[in-house]
Amino acid sequence: MFISIPWLVLFFFALIFVVGVLIYELNAKFKWKNRFNELSEETANLKVKLSKTSSLEENFDLIINKITKELSVQQRKIFLHTVKGLPSKDISDKMNISSSTVNSHIKEIMRHFKVNKRAQLPYIVIDKITNSSNGFDGDIDKEN
């Protein structure tokens, strides 16, 4: 049986097309697997970062509680807002108190921590974090 040349050429091109599609599909499959592995690694890295972040937040809360244990509840709230950088007006709006009350509390807080400027208050927290091993050693009262 004899197959004509045009049919052989058509068969050859069809075979090349099928092989090309198979190669493309295999390549896409491997790219998908590689991307999946990359995403798995990124997910693992993000989980590690998240666990470190939550421990830092816990340490921050412990530090704030130890630093502010002698302040009143309202002074603690004002201290936290001040450390976050909020101006007196925003603090007074959030806490539904007057700006003059906020300012008088801030003066008392500054007197308590023996600082002259409001801008020095965040550095109290930073100082406690950076002057202890691994960020926080669990005992802030050693220095006081």
Description:
- The protein has a single domain, classed as Orthogonal Bundle (Arc Repressor Mutant, subunit A), CATH 1.10.10.10.
- The chain is mainly α and 144 residues long.
- The chain contains five helices and no strands.
- It starts with a helix and ends in a 14-residue tail after the last helix.
- α2 crosses α4 and α3 crosses α4.
- It is rod-shaped.
- It is 74% helix and 0% strand.
Task: Summarize the topology.
Layout: H1 5-67, H2 73-83, H3 88-95, H4 99-113, H5 121-130
Query: What would you say the CATH architecture is?
Result: Orthogonal Bundle
Low-confidence stretches: 133-144
Class per helix and strand makeup: mainly alpha
Number of strands: 0
Offer a quick outline of the entry.
The protein is mainly α and 144 residues long. It contains 5 helices and no strands. The chain has a single domain, classed as Arc Repressor Mutant, subunit A, CATH 1.10.10.10.
